[in-house]
Amino acid sequence: MATPLTADALVSALRSEGVHVTGRSGWRTHNRNSVDAWGGVNGVMIHHTAGRDSLDLVYGGRADLPGPLAHTHLAKDGTATMVGHGRANHAGRVAQNAFDAVVAESSTHPAPSAASGTVDGNAHFYGIEIENLGTSGDPYPAVQYDAAVRWAAAICRAHGWGAHSVVGHKETSVEGKIDPSFDMDRFRADVAARLAGDPDEEDDMKLNDQVKIADWVSDAFPNQEGLQDGQISVQTALGSGYGYAHIAADASKEILAQLIAQQKVLDKLVAALADEG
Ligand SMILES: [Zn+2]
Fold it and tell me: Are 136 and 127 spatial neighbours (Cβ–Cβ below 8 Å)?
């Protein structure tokens, strides 16, 4: 059980995890706190919307179920829109046995049993509604799925929770909910993989070695100009036979072209030296 994050802390955590966050006007004070409790919090719950153009619905709710219907709405393009902060109508009654597994961060999540009793899920879970029809004909774009993983990981990281604090609505509901339509064990594994890494580190920047270009260009081409240290760096995977250039934000494609041309010169030079030997 933990104290809920403030709105600012939540947005900050999501952005640190690489989530593209925006907010529906008024979301910071849009909640159901006047009806019942919000917090302490124990986990995060994943949903799919079962509809398109669902942002208005997730914000405003329906006549029989007032909004917000989650804390965050996640569009197909991966944009996370904050729709509420505080108690939200998303989790409903959570089976006690499913809740206990979350609290214990159990590696197994039992089928929800009404016989075990229920708890007020809306008090204890952050919720995200992922826009998806929930059918096999509506895949989750990679950018959307990745953003959902990051959203869940961000909240877990902020609270010091592991991936087993993440559950799907279908894993907790005693009302026969079927969302989300993807496999939750795989989703938790993806959250766990993110939590094991550094949120500031790019996924594709795991190569073994990094050398600044000025170090070797100045040796190989003492008369060359136009490449400045700090503008560009070359990362190589030593021993695996490949390498690539990582261009700093302010470097141009022209510099990369120049680098490639210089590599060709270097290759010729090496070939010529080999011939002489
Ligand atoms: Zn749901």
Answer: no
